[in-house]
Each structure stands twice: as C-alpha cells, then as structure tokens.
Amino acid sequence: MLKNYFKIAIAVLKRRKFFTFISLFGISFTLTILMVLTAFIDKVINDNYPDKKRDRMLYINRIAQVGDGNMQSGTLSYYFLSHYTGMMKTPVKVGISSIFNGTNTYVNNQKISVNYKYTNADFWDVLDHDFIEGKPFNKQQVTNADRVVVISEDMKKQYFGDVQSVVGKYFEADNVSYRVIGVVKNVPVTNYMMYSDIYLPYTVSKADYKDKSYSGMYMAFLLAATPADVPKMQAEYEDLIKRVPVERKDFKHVYSHANTFFRSYVDTGREDKSGVFIVVTAISIFVFIFTLLPTLNLVNINITRIMERSSEIGVRKAFGASSKTLVYQFIVENLILTLLGGIIGVVLSVAALSFINGADLISNLELRINFSVLFIGLLVCLVFGFISGVYPAWRMSKLNVVTALKAQ
Amino acid sequence: MIRLQNIEKVYRTDTIETLALNSVSLDVAKGEFLSIMGPSGCGKSTLLNIMGLLDAPSKGEIRIDDQKTGGMNDKQLAQFRNKKLGFIFQSYHLINDLQVLDNVELPLLYRDTTAKQRRELAAEALEKVGLANRLKHFPTQLSGGQRQRVAIARAIVGRPEIILADEPTGNLDSAMGNEIMEILLNLNRTDGTTIVMVTHDENMAHKTHRLVRLFDGAQVL
User: Fold this and answer.
1) What domains sit in chain B, N to C, each tagged with a CATH number?
2) Which residue of A has its CA nearest to B46?
C-alpha cells in the first residue's frame, strides 16, 4: 500500500514540475530560515563558554531605582557590586566585569577596533576561559593596578600577526601600553556579558571605580559552592536588595536580581514583564507567522493538485476506498513531499550556516547544525506536511463519487 | 441479485427540482446480463450509479445479494462495493500516472492482500482481457480499446459478482466495441458474473439477456 502511495506521489510531483518547485522551495526555504534561527538560539543559549559552571552561577547585570513617575535603570557600579555582594555569605567567589566598550588602536598605520572590558581577579576563577598561552591577572596585579592585559585569540592575530607567542609583548590602547600576560580562546559577541577582545584590571580604568553611586558599567557573576546552593544564593541577594537604601529621596524602591543565565541574558530591566516571556512570545509569533504562510500556500497548491485528481478519487472510492483511506493516502503523499523539501532544506541549511560562519557576520560566532536543530527541523517538516495535507485531503475525500467522476 | 424498489431520485437546486428517476423498480437475477437503454438524460447513468451505491436515491430501497444497503455508512459502503461490485466507465477512468498493472491492482489495495497476491491476480486479470504483454505500459501508451480492456481487468480483478458498465463501448469504433462486448459476454457466460450495462447501441443491447428502456426517468419496457 505504502509503495503504491509512494509511486503515485512521485508521479504526481513529476507531473506538475512548477507546482512541485514552488512547494519544495517554500518548504525548504522556510526550513532553512528556521534551522539557522534555531542554530543561532541554540548557540546563544546552550553554548557555555566561558561560563562553564552555569549550574552554580547567578548573573547580576541590572539595577533599577523607581520613584513616582521616575526611574533609573542600568548596569551597576563597581562599588555597589563589591560592597554589597561582598557582604553575601553563599557565593564562594564573585567575578565582576564591566560591559564591553570600544576603542581604536593602530598597528603600522592600520586602524584596529578593540572592545575592552575591566574585570577583577575572581572573574577568571568564576569563568573558565581557555588560555592558549599565559595566564590571567591575579589579585596582586589588580591591587597594584598593573598595566597588564589578557587578549583574545583573534586580537592576537590582528594586532601581532602570525606569531608563536605574544606573552610579554606590549599592546597599546588609548595611548597606554599594557603587557600581554595571557591569550584566551574567542568568546562570541552574542555572549555579550562575557565577550571582549581585551581584558584589563578594573583598577587601571580611567573612570572612578570608587564612586559610590549605584549605577555604573559593571555586572557580577556569583559562584555558589554547589548547584544546590544557587536558590539560597538567589534568595540572599533578593533579601539584601530589600535592605539597600534608595540613593535619592525621589526613589522609592531598589530592584536588582541575581538571575540564571537565560533570564539575565534577556533581561529587559522591567519588573512587570520578564524578558523570558517577551523573547519566547516574540520567537513564537515569528515562527508561527513564518510557517503559517508557506503552510497556507501549500494548502492552496494541494487543493489545486488534488482537484486535478478528482477522477482518481472517484475511481478509488468506487472500487472500495473509504474517505478515511483517501485522507490517509493524501497525507502520506504530502508527507513525502514535505520530507523531500525537508531534505533539501537540510542541505540548504548546511550551506547557509557555512556561509554565515565563513562570512564572519557575527564576530566569533560559529554556528553548527546539531541534532536538536535537525530534530526540530524534521519535526517542523512533519507538522508542515500534516497540516497542509489534512484540510485538502479531508475536503476531497468528502467529494461525491459521481461528481468526482464527472469532473474529468 | 439486485433488487430496486420504487427508486426515486430528485436533483434540487435553489429554484428547480428535477426528477431524474421516477419510481423505478427492477430485479436483476444472478448471472443475468441486463442492458439499459434510453435517450440522453433519461436517467440511465443515474440508475446505474444508484445500483452501484455510488449515489443515494431520494426514495426507495436497494437490496444487493439480499442485503439492505440503505443504512450503511461510508466505510461499510466502500467495503461492500469493493467485494461485490466492479465498474466500467465510458471514459475508462484509468490513473495515467500508474502503470497498467498498478491500475488493475487498485481494488485489491483496499482488501487484505499481499503485494505478491495483488501482482498475480492483476496479471491474471490482464491475461483474461488479452493484455498480458502490456503490464508495464502506461494508459496513455495504449489505444482506446486497450484502455477499456484494462478497465475491465480492473473491474474483474477482485472477482465481484456484479459488474456495472456505463456505456463501455461508447468511445470506441464498432470493431473495438465488439471486442469489448465479446469479453463481457464471455465473463457472463463462463464466470456467471451478473452484468448491468447502460448503452446507446441497439446491437450491443440485443446481445444481452434482457433490455430495459427508460424514458424521462421512468421504466417503459
């Protein structure tokens, strides 16, 4: 039976090549976009470099002070983070770093743009950067405000060229020379909380890191001793924030949260709506609309295609096919079509991902097709095939035999 | 074998009501070869479709092989047709995307048969109609007469007790028409298949056991 369906499905596909092309193009193109999107989301959410101990970590990247009609929200000051998180008992370490900022440097009259980040020494213990050479700066070097720098692999290539070792060499940024003490594997820019081209001790920052205002350009990474301690650590920070006094009289509340990676990654700074909700809703709406259009298109094409076969439907019914059997046949045929589109989609996705990786559109981001992406892709295909086949099949199966036979 | 009692068929649109069949009662005996004649639009095909359970009457009762067919649902009707009935249409209604052998196999797909059994039975049916050497051809590669023979093979492959033929020679020249008629007569003689045939051709009709004439939806002979 299935072999028979397969034969006729292939014959029908060959018969109307233009329709087949439109259908296959719609399916494979949509699938490609979804595959690239899921590969991107997967990379952003599931790639845990350099924060390999995510299950023991919480992220603080925002503080908000709210009054009657006024609000101030943004990253935090070094003082606030070191002072208040310093009082916490659960974290075993607190890594602190600034957001990344850009500057330019020049090598042989060539401009290179550099993103830099200030960090404390614990930053290197909380996170697990892969050091290609050298090592991170230690507490002593930070306290001494030593002009030392850890650079990324990419920056090493750009600044120094293809050389074996750069530890001990000098890197100039903003007219200051820093001694390179380590080179780390690249962090993709999508991991914006940790990404940078060069890392400097916060003590060499020109801005006053002793300033006691709450807002600044820093965030913190709290490390608990065990994953089980994470909720406790979170509760402790919530409790601490409740006791933090407002900075100015026109503010009434202070809000700041120690969140898990994903929550903090998509944090909007709003107390009433979580970023997770907004991101999930936005992605769902996008995927829904993006898959709805080709599905509707397929439904239409399928109706036309099936209508052309009314004589066949009539004959099959006359010779004993029930409506249910016919629905089954058309769905199977449609699944064959969509799976074919799926296979083309997978090939296109591999091509698209290798193009995106090759063109280096997003710095240091290496997208890959993985099994979860492939699984989602195939699932989307099956859902496509099913949805776009069911309605036309159902409609056609209800066709009266005599009418179907006359339609030829 | 087939018993029609007071069959009435009314086609309704918003404004017009057309009476296609008016109180037709007919008995077809087992092994009988019956032909139905009448002018165009007199209800011949409608009657045949109702006999074949392809269309439902507005009134009246159909019994086939002593079974009432009135209360059957879609699935039951499909199964009943599959077992008891074979159809031959004027315009053949072959599936052009499938090879001759696959076309003939079609009724067996809806039965509990293995692929091998289907192949064998279909080949046997094609041999019976003299097309044993055309199994791998597509319908479009055959002449009209050959196509109708494929359609006959499809109608008999499931060994139904009744064959309903709607102008089976209507699209063929007289030589080919005679060939087809011979096959049908032979089926009736040797296998005892009950055949009901709608035709416009007096010569063909006179070769059958009995002739029924319809006029304006009513039986006149």
Assistant:
1) 2-219 (3.40.50.300)
2) A402
> CB B49 to CB A402 under 8 A?
yes
Contact B95 A1 (CB under 8 A): no
If you measure CA to CA, which chain A residue comes closest to B53? Answer: A318
Angle B82-B88-B94 (CA atoms, 0-180°, nearest 5)? Answer: 90
CA distance B211 to chain A (A): 24
Q: A92 vs A96, A222, A226, A337, CA distance in Å?
A: 13, 8, 10, 56
Cβ contact B154–A408 (<8 Å):
no
Identity of the amino acid at A379: L
Q: Which chain B residue's Cα is nearest to A408?
A: B93
Contacts of A313 in chain B (CB under 8 A): none
Query: Are A133 and A261 spatial neighbours (Cβ–Cβ below 8 Å)?
Result: no
Query: Which residues on chain B are in Cβ contact (under 8 Å) with A314?
Result: 93
- A1, B109: Cβ pair inside 8 Å? yes
Q: Which of A7, A310, A319 to mutate to test the interface with B (most CBs of B within 10 A)?
A: A319
Residues whose CB falls within 8 Å of the CB of residue B45, separated by 6 or more in sequence, listed in order: B166, B198
- The total of other beta-carbon atoms located within 10 Å of residue A400's CB is 14
Nearest-by-CA chain B residue for A405:
B93
Within an 8 Å CB–CB cutoff, is residue B56 touching chain A?
no
Is the ipTM above a cut-off of 0.90?
Answer: yes
Judged by CB atoms closer than 8 Å, whether chains meet at B74 and A323 is answered as yes
Q: CA–CA separation, A226 vs A264, rounded Å?
A: 20
**Closest to A335 (Cα-Cα) out of A378, A394, A288:** A378
Predicted confidence pLDDT, tens digits, chain A (408 residues): 677 777 777 877 777 788 788 888 888 888 888 888 888 888 777 778 898 999 999 999 999 999 888 888 999 999 999 999 888 999 999 999 999 999 999 888 889 999 999 999 999 999 999 999 999 999 999 999 999 999 999 999 999 999 999 999 999 988 899 999 999 999 988 888 899 999 999 999 988 888 889 999 999 999 999 999 999 999 999 999 999 999 888 999 999 999 998 888 777 666 666 677 888 888 888 888 887 887 788 788 877 877 788 888 899 999 999 888 888 888 888 888 888 888 898 899 889 888 888 876 666 677 777 677 678 777 877 887 787 788 888 888 888 888 888 865
* Token output for A97: 């770093």
- What residue has token string 């074949």? B52
